[in-house]
Amino acid sequence: MTSLTGSIKPQSQQDVYNDPYFKSLIKRSLRYLSTGYPVHFTGPSGIGKTTLALHIAKQRKRPVLLINGNKDLSNEDLIGAYTGYRRKKLNDNFVRTVHKIEENISEEWVNGRLYEAVKEGYTVVYDEFTRSQPETNNLFLSILEEKILPLYGTKRTESFIDVHPDFSIIFTSNPAEYAGVYQSQDALLDRMVTLPVEYMDEEAETAIVMKKTKISEKKASAIVGFVNRVRGLCENDVASLSLRSSIMIAQVVERYNIKVKGDNSEFQDVCTDITLFPLQACSDETESLEELKEKILVECKEV
Ligand SMILES: Nc1ncnc2c1ncn2[C@@H]1O[C@H](COP(=O)(O)OP(=O)(O)OP(=O)(O)O)[C@@H](O)[C@H]1O
To answer: In angstroms, what is the span from residue 47 Cα to ligand 1's centroid?
Structure first.
């Protein structure tokens, strides 16, 4: 991606998204959404997909709803359900010797998270949608294809509600997670505009680490450089060595006043603790933990 040019240092999320790469991605995404197509951001964990999706969602000037995909997410959670009974009791003891009790029992409907969003035209960010079960994601097929939200199994008199014309969805996913997981994802993927999100350059990552942790630019840049060098050791792209790892290291060293220096054993420990497991996930199985630790230490000592 293009780097953040010029002498102006990015200081805020706004500035990060002023980078030409993000500017263009945001503009294109808003156009697809306004034309009625959902957008799908895909890329490795911790790269900034959710933050970008929420940033774009906010620009649409409609209420924003964030849904996190997971295997327990059910149609009921999304559509709504009759969740119990409401009992109304009227005690009439106007005449002391006569007790009149009137009971009125009715089932109570509670709207699911999507119900309101579909009806009122919210912008939904459906994070990690590939983690949900196919039956749950089928609901989204109806929304995208027929522009209705079916009210399956809800005993409601109407069998669906129409999708509001302003309703839109931004999906996010991690490609390492959806390879062949559920077939139904393919039908959904077919109906959205999938945009890969690239790693930010080091300058942009440094700006974000500074903003999130209040650490100095010099330290933030050293930490980001270290994390990116460790990511360079990966054999596959399952890595979650990203912005998130840099933020974690920066937060800990800042809070406990740990010197950001390669020969400081406390700094070495933090670097190893935070990057060893993700590095193992993206490395050959033949490499032992000790070997990976050694590699991390080599990079850490460069700081
Ligand atoms: N533009 C940004 N401004 C400020 N912080 C950001 C920005 N982009 C990402 N971050 C921060 O970086 C971290 C990772 O970002 P985010 O959760 O958006 O990544 P993700 O790709 O959605 O990760 P996952 O796939 O694991 O959900 C978060 O702490 C987030 O707050």
So the answer is: 6
Rounded CA-CA distance 53/142 in Å is 22
Query: Which own/partner contact pairs does 219-227 have at CB distance under 8 Å and 24+ positions apart?
Result: 219/250, 219/253, 219/254, 219/260, 220/246, 220/250, 222/260, 222/303, 223/249, 223/250, 223/253, 223/260, 223/303, 225/302, 225/303, 226/271, 226/299, 226/300, 226/302, 226/303, 227/275
pLDDT, tens digit, for every residue of 179-216?
555 655 778 888 999 999 988 889 999 999 999 998 99
CA 167 to centroid of ligand 1, rounded, Å: 24
Structure tokens that stand for 28 in this block: 């294109």
Domain 20-71+114-196 has CATH 3.40.50.2000: no
The gap between the terminal CA atoms of the chain, to the nearest Å, is: 25
Closest residue CA from atom 23 of ligand 1:
46
ipTM of the complex in this document: 0.97
CA-173 nearest atom, ligand 1: 25
- Residue pLDDT, tens place only, 43-57: 888 889 999 999 999
CATH 3.40.50.300 in the chain: give the residue spans.
Answer: 20-71+114-196
